[in-house]
Amino acid sequence: MPTTRQAPVIVITGTPGTGKTTHAQLLVHESPLPLKHINVGDLVKEKALHETYDDEWQTYTVDEDKLLDELEPLASEGGIILDWHTCDLFPERWADLVVVLRCNHTKLWDRLEKRGYPLKKIQENNEAEIMEVVIEEARSSYAPEIVVELQSEGTEDLESNVARIVQWIEAWKKDREHTAQS
Predict the structure, then answer these.
(1) Closest Cα to residue 96, out of 75, 119, 121?
(2) Which pTM does this prediction carry?
(3) Please, what sign has the CA dihedral across residues 100, 105, 107, 113?
(4) DSSP state of 33
(5) Are 14 and 134 spatial neighbours (Cβ–Cβ below 8 Å)?
(6) What is the mean pLDDT of residues 44-49?
(7) Of 40, 70, 118, 144, which one's alpha carbon is 20 to 30 angstroms from that of 79?
(8) Per residue, what are the HEC states of 44-101?
């Protein structure tokens, strides 16, 4: 993406239940630059960017072309946080930072149970976390220097993670200002 953007595109990803939305919402408030939180799953439902609904898994089958067409102008503008359980769909040129949230599988199981997920969905998501599916997707889809893996097991992690991302945004902003002056 061109360096003319006034704010970065940050992808926050992780297995369902790792705290993506909570991190994104707090980051919107703490960021030194204006950022808009886009919960991609909600966007898919709101804008009907799906093909079908899978009753067994209680999830939508996303129409990837429609989704990317919807997000392209927003990513080009910058200043967004893309919050979704996967990241490899987003073009590499969009992302300035990819944050992969991780959680101990026992805690994750409890979180998903509290959400009322069916057992099969809890098992699949837990297995994905254990097998490091999301971090491997991120590592195979983006430059290693923009992929960050962070633990997300409680309030202390949340606050520390958001503070770390805020520091990254400040460095991103400073780097852009320096580049513009050169």
Answers:
(1) 75
(2) 0.95
(3) positive
(4) S
(5) yes
(6) 97
(7) 144
(8) HHHCCCEEEEECCCCEEEECHHHHHHHHHHHHHHCCEEEEECCCCCCCCCCCCEEEEE
